[in-house]
Each structure stands twice: as structure tokens, then as C-alpha cells.
Amino acid sequence: MRTTDRTASRALSMPALTCLAGLACAAAACGGTRLPPRELTEAREEFYHARDTVGSIDPTHVHEADLALTNAESAWQRDPDSPSTIDLAIVALRKAQIAEAEAQAALAFKRAEIARRETRDLAQLQLQSAQGQLGRTERQLDDTQTQLRRQQQESASQRQQLVDTEARLKDARTSIARIAAVKDDERGMVITLQSELLFKTGKSDLKAAAMAKLDQIAEALKGKEQVIHVLGYTDDVGTRENNVDLSQRRASAVRDYLVGKGIPQDLVRAEGRGPDNPASDNTSMEGRAANRRVEIVVEPKK
How many C-alpha atoms does 186 have within 13 Å on its Cβ side? Predict the structure, then answer.
């Protein structure tokens, strides 16, 4: 139900205005302010709302609602207490509701027609776009196939390079095994050189004989492009601080020598671990000698 404040602000139709003027005069003549029944008030509100919102869409039904409201207003003016007055007011209410519903249906149909046209136009545009995209996709497919063939050729070349690298690494392992202990563990290929063969006691300067061995190791590893860790170890004689420092200097000396012989500097790292990770028991002379070592760990290719 619409509010009377809203309907009061709307302009009335000429027939309804005439009836209302007559009603006002009748009320004044009787000396009272008798209000119209609720059904008539609702019919007025519904008519005004239909006229203002959908009158331009479906004027025929709005006109019929206007006539029905005029009849109801006239009936109330003639005989406010007559049951037919309420009936006519209800008829006017339904006419106004029908006018609004019919207009809304007409509007929905019009919008649906517009939507169908827009959908048809959009479908045509999409078809044209799809045809253009299909052409581009076919060209991209040709490019992709060409690129795939190129990649297959490159992959075959890379596989061959890997096979060649593994063969060279196997040859390098065989060469290195003649001058040093070589084993494999989870870290990769581990080349172990005893410190007595590389350095004088307590020193980190390489002996001449050590350089000859490292020359062979560098030559065997050159061109493999694999990460190399040089790890220095000591026994547990002396303070840990001195042992870590000595092992670091010895590992750095081996690293610098390998780099000087052509191993890429960014692939070789040096670390001194002092008495950590002993290879044997430090309680015997032989065990301590085994712990004083340098490990060259060659990581596997990833």
C-alpha cells in the first residue's frame, strides 16, 4: 500500500479532481470531515503510482483505471454508506494494479527484444573474433611446432653433451684414483688427500709434490662445470680455534691453486671444519694422521 503523503504530491486527473472537489463540498455542507473508506484511498494511491510510473508505456490500461477511480469517487459522493461504493473502489484498485502489471510486462518484453538483438550482434562479433583467433592460433601452432623441433634437436644435443660429460668424468675419476683416494657418497665424488702430502706440520703452504698432484686433479676436473667444495680437517690436538683456522687456510690454499689452474672461481668453495667429522679415532697416531686431510667434493650435475 502506497503512503498518502506520496500520493498527495501528485497531480490528479481531471475527472478525479472534479469528484474530489464535490466530495470536499459535500463534507463542508454536512459540517464534518468524513474520510473516504480504506479501499478508495488504496485505489487512489495505486492509480497515481501506475500513472506516474508506467502511464507512458501503456496509457490504455491507465485510462481504464482512471475511469474506474472516477466511478468509485462518484459513488462515494452520492452514497458513502452504500456497499457498491466499496465494490467500485476495489474495482478501481484492481484496474490500477492491472495497468501497472501490463505495463511492466510490456516493458519486460521490450527489454527482452533489445537483449536478443544485442545477443545476436554480440554473437556475430564473437564469431568474427573467433575466426580471426583461429587464424592466429594456426599460425602460432606452426610456430610452436617449429620451436618444438628446435627444442628436440637441442635436447638431443644436450643429452649427448651429458653422455660426453659423464664419460669425461669417469675418465677423470680413473686418473684421480691413481694419485688419491676416491669414493662416492651422498655429497658426490669425494677426493681425499692427506695433509702430510700437501703441507708441512702446522703450515698451509702447499708442498711442491702437492702441487704436482693438484695439477693432475685440476686437469681431470677442468671443463666439467660442476660445483666443488674444498673441505679442510685436522685432528683434535690443540685448541679448536687454532684447528679451525688452520683447516680453513689449508682449504683456501687448495681452492686458490685449483682456480689458478683453470677451475672457474665461482664453482669452487673452501671451508675449514677443524676436528669435526673425524675419519678415524684420534686416540692413535694413525687415526690422527687419517683425520688430518683435505677433501675435494665434486657435486653431481643436477
Answer: 0
The answer to whether the beta carbons of residues 67 and 21 sit under 8 Å apart is no
User: How many helices (H) and strands (E) in the chain?
Assistant: 9, 5
pTM score of the predicted model: 0.47
Q: What is the mean pLDDT of the chain?
A: 81
Strand ranges of the sheet holding 268-272, from the earlier edge strand across to the other edge:
181-185, 188-194, 293-298, 228-233, 268-272
- 266, 292 in Cβ contact below 8 A? no
- On the CB side of 43, CA atoms within 13 Å amount to 28
Cβ neighbours of residue 270 under 8 Å, at least 6 residues apart? 229, 230, 231, 232, 248, 251, 252, 254, 255
DSSP state of 236: S
pLDDT in tens, 283-295: 999 999 999 999 9
Q: Which of 267, 298, 61 is nearest to 166 (CA)?
A: 298
- CB 296 within 8 Å of CB 254: yes
Q: Please enumerate in sequence order all residues whose Cβ is within 8 A of that of 252, keeping only pairs 6 or more positions apart, or say none.
A: 204, 230, 270, 272
State the pairing for strand pair 268-272/228-233: parallel
Greatest distance between any 2 Cα atoms in the chain: 138
Domains of the chain: 4-114 (no CATH), 179-298 (3.30.1330.60)
As a whole number of angstroms, the distance between CA 227 and CA 169 comes to 13
User: Helix or strand or coil: residue 27?
Assistant: helix
Angle between helices 38-54 and 83-177 (to 10 degrees): 50
Classify 268 as helix, strand or coil: strand
Which pLDDT value is given to residue 165?
A: 60
Q: Which residue's C-alpha cell is 544485442?
A: 118
